[in-house]
Amino acid sequence: MCGIVGCVAEEPVAEILLEGLKRVEYRGYDSVGMATISGGKFGVRKGVGRVAEVEERLQMSRLPGDAGMAHSRWATHGGVTDQNAHPHASCRESVAVIHNGIIENYVPLKKALSSRGHRFRSETDTEVIAHIIEDEYKRLRDPVKATLAGTKKLKGQYAMAVMFQDRPDVMIGARKDAPLIVGVGDGKMFLASDVLAFIGHTDRTIFLDNLEVVELTKDRVRIFGPQGKEVRRKPTQVAWELSDVSKSDFAHYTLKEINEQPKTVLTASVQDPAKLEAFAKAIRKAKSLYITASGTSYHAGLLMKFRLNKEAKIRVDTVVAGELKEHAGFLGKGSVVVAFSQSGETADVMEAVKEAKKHGARVFSIVNAAGSTLARESDGVLLLNCGPEVGVAATKSFTAQVVVANLVVDAVLGKRRSNGFKELSEAVAETLKCDEQIRDLVYEYSSRPDFYFVARGYESPVAMEGALKLKELSYIHAEGMPASELKHGTLALIEKGTPVVVLNPSGSLHADTLSNAEELRARGADVIGVSDVKDEVYRHFVRVPKVQPKFAPIVESIPLQLLAYHMSVAKRNDPDYPRNLAKSVTVK
Ligand code: AGP
Fold first, then answer.
1. How many whole angstroms from 81 Cα to the centroid of ligand 1?
2. In what order do the strands lie in the sheet containing 380-383?
3. Into which CATH architecture does domain 242-418 fall?
4. CA 296 to ligand 1 center in whole angstroms
5. Distances from the Cα of 515 to the Cαs of 209, 214, 486, 537, in angstroms?
6. CA-CA distance, 410 to 413, in Å (whole number)?
7. Which of 253, 346, 392 to mutate to test the pocket of ligand 1 (most atoms within 8 A of CB)?
């Protein structure tokens, strides 16, 4: 959600900011804006639309000035209008701000400010920040002190960049429960919600802690704790490169990321044995154990639960992150919560982690973004090592999560080594060859209003993941469920020609799943089998290579991801940026 990019440099920054804005587009947004300072005045250009559209209309990149900030807004408070887009300036235009998060007490703050003569131009919660800091700056005459004092009045979450009209050399950043990262360049310093915003300029980053405030000038970064005391912190190097965030020859990031999986299942499998063992030990010793995550990551968590229950005989529940609070009765000292998150910034996951910690539980996480809030607040972390994922739909991060989850379960089971990743990588490459066949399916079924995905046992979460992927990319209604559940209600929805994808690898559940496929066919469904064994019940059959059962969800996911992607393209949607969704869901 909302993206922040700020830069103070020894050269004009508008082009740099525009490039940064494009790199945070994937976070999801409805409007964009930019502010720079030149000649002692703010220049602000902002409006509703995609970065390219607003740039064409308003020429943000022509704004003069060596310091500036840009923002992509995902509306929460106040409609999607030009006026509500960020940046927001105070009434005297002495302070401008961009913000990611929600100011929960903005209504009383706005009332109090209005009664003191402040005039508001937008309906946003953010605008109060500019007015509050303006007052504090008048009193304190110091950008850091004014921001610290101002933020103390705010309740809620924020990551913000603040600029002062009479201090064009300085930009201030502040954060609480929302990500804000500093990029340390040569002669230019950055503030961003994501390293991708500045990765082409520097790979040296500083992750700010909650309630810290940072002051950037073109050649210096100073960090201050909540009481105004300076904190010393060295930059760390991020492993991601600029080439990781290009589309290469692919039409979309999503397609590129799907095709990267033969490589990413391998990179995900390279984990520090000591970290794995610490993770496994915590799981073995946990008095109570939960896995928590949202969306696709939740499906990876369900797969981990299955193996822990069945093979390790460990009792564990996988709970959607936004609901973990409701299970707090089972959390206490000695509990362990395993959190899955690609971004490491999902608000629901962070809330769940906060709740778990409040009850004395330890948190172990499986995360893609090193340095993310979740990674930093966990007692143990395993990284996915699958590179940045730009497409809003999680693809390679899901299969990487399944790889890492399997490594953890193997470690819990006392297996010193997990192997077979080379064969897995080859099997994923082989499966990707089904692309043409999937396009044919899309051609046949793109006008169907509903799709169903069913499976049994370990594959059930994959059915749910297939449905989620199709919904978010194609906007077709889809449901994924255990095949055994069909007869308890959903079968009533099956009509002649309803497409039902049946995931059915060879193994102990194969025959039962085939019976369900028969039941579906008998009611007119077009059964699309995804398996290593063909059967005449399938109207269409997508062969996937036979792999170790624990890896089957990985190869089965590939045709489902391709189905969702090609369906999206066929329907003329943008697969990288599906409507109403954000890559990193940083609000509750
Ligand atoms: C997946 O395709 C989704 N876009 C979404 O469900 C996502 O997995 C969810 O928001 C969780 O994100 P996270 O892994 O970054 O925490």
1. 27
2. 317-320, 288-293, 335-341, 362-367, 380-383
3. 3-Layer(aba) Sandwich (3.40)
4. 5
5. 55, 62, 12, 9
6. 5
7. 346
Q: What is the distance between the alpha carbons of residues 32 and 45, in angstroms, rounded to a whole number?
A: 9
3-state SS, residue 553: helix
* pLDDT digit string, tens, across residues 361-413: 999 999 999 888 999 999 999 999 999 999 999 999 999 999 999 999 999 99
Would you say residue 422 has pLDDT above 90? yes
| Residue 132 banded pLDDT, cuts 50, 70, 90 | very high
Cβ count within 10 A of residue 532: 18
Q: What are phi and psi of 107, to 5 degrees?
A: -65, -55
Question: Which stretches does DSSP call E strand in 10-155?
Answer: 31-38, 41-48, 67-73, 88-89, 95-103
Under 8 Å between Cβ of 482 and 463? yes
Amino acid (one-letter) located at 511: A
Looking at domain 431-576, its CATH class is alpha beta
In Å, what is the CA distance from 578 to each residue of 26, 358, 560? 10, 36, 17
Query: 3-state DSSP call for residue 152?
Result: coil
Identify which of 118, 178, 187 has the alpha carbon closest to the alpha carbon of residue 154: 178
Please state the domain extents for the chain: 3-238, 242-418, 431-576
The pLDDT of residue 242 is above 80: no
Let me know: does 171 contact 69? Beta carbons within 8 Å: yes
pLDDT digits (tens, 9 = 90+) for 138-149: 999 999 999 999
Return the pLDDT at 289: 97
pLDDT reported for residue 419: 83
Can 3-238 and 431-576 be said to share one CATH topology?
Answer: no
Q: How would you class 562 by CB atoms within 10 Å of its CB: exposed for 0-12, middle for 13-18, buried for 19 or more?
A: buried
* Mutation pick for ligand 1 pocket among 297, 384, 568, 574 (CB with most ligand atoms within 8 Å): 297
The two structure tokens encoding residue 227: 């009481």
Q: Whose CA is nearest to atom 5 of ligand 1?
A: 295
pLDDT digits (tens, 9 = 90+) for 147-165: 999 999 999 999 999 999 9
Homologous superfamily, domain 3-238: Aminohydrolase, N-terminal nucleophile (Ntn) domain (3.60.20.10)
CA angle 398, 401, 406 (to 5 degrees): 130
